[in-house]
Write a structure and sequence with these properties.
With about 240 residues, the protein is of the alpha+beta class. It contains eight helices and five strands; from the N terminus they run αααααββαβαββα. It has two domains: about 80 residues, Rossmann fold (3-Layer(aba) Sandwich), CATH 3.40.50; about 130 residues, Roll (CBS-domain), CATH 3.10.580.10.
């Protein structure tokens, strides 16, 4: 699995805590977001436990281990975090849908277009990226020419390192921390929303609904931007 990011926080880092004695550990297991987050929601729904994502990771593998034990064996699982810092994450259906952790029920009237591949969307606008060396002025000019509010920052190979937006530019300009001749890296975001060409229009729509845009990638390289305009163009065909 090609993992480019993660949602479960506080575990899996590339350093070993000094207080950890690995001699007491018999087995290490990895857990994906797709396993952890639904399990955390299940603990809430079925057990009334207000758990964070790390609990989902721990309990997912506790159940897997329990399946290999003789009947009647007692398995102890430590749940390491609470929901306090994650109220806007896996508690929300929209957050789970956007990350494709589960599929929402599709309204019947949307069935015709919802499950189609993103690659079949109409493509009328000019595809454009900017590189890390340009100024805010140049970035805004490029966005105006492409008729977009968000534009990816990418290298010559098309690998995206972040997103520059009119919203973020306005925020920094009003604060007086940048001017139009400042480099874009002073007010860009390294986190960006993306789908693959074979993902559904429904998934892309949900990401656009919450963020205003989504980038389409092919083998990790930028292909095009999508906005609400593109989705409506498909719906109205």
């Amino acid at each position: 699995m090609d993992v480019t990011g993660y949602e479960v926080e506080g575990i899996g880092y590339d350093f070993i805590p000094d207080v950890l004695n690995r001699g007491y550990v018999d087995e290490w297991r990895k857990c994906t977001d797709e396993q952890a987050m639904p399990m955390a929601r299940r603990l809430l729904r079925e057990e009334g436990l207000l758990c964070g994502g790390s609990c989902g990771s721990a309990f997912y593998h506790a159940l897997e281990i329990a399946k290999t034990m003789p009947e009647g064996t007692r398995v102890v699982c430590i749940l390491p975090d609470s929901i306090r810092n994650y109220m806007t994450k896996h508690l929300m259906d929209e957050w789970m849908w956007e990350r494709d952790f589960f599929t929402p029920q599709v309204p019947e009237q949307n069935a015709e277009w919802y499950g189609k591949s993103v690659r079949f969307l109409p493509w009328n606008r000019k595809t454009q990226t900017i590189n890390e060396s340009v100024t805010i002025r140049c970035a805004l000019s490029a966005m105006k020419a492409a008729d977009v509010e968000f534009i990816p920052i990418a290298d010559e190979e098309g690998t995206v390192s972040g997103v520059f937006s009119q919203t973020k530019a306005m925020e920094y300009l009003l604060a007086g921390t940048v001017n139009l001749d400042t480099n874009v890296l002073k007010c860009y975001e390294t986190s960006f929303k993306a789908v693959n060409q074979d993902d559904t229009i429904g998934l892309a729509s949900r990401k656009i609904q919450n963020n205003g845009y989504v980038f389409v990638l092919e083998d990790g390289k930028f292909v095009r931007s999508l906005s609400r305009k593109d989705i409506f163009a498909q719906i109205m065909q």
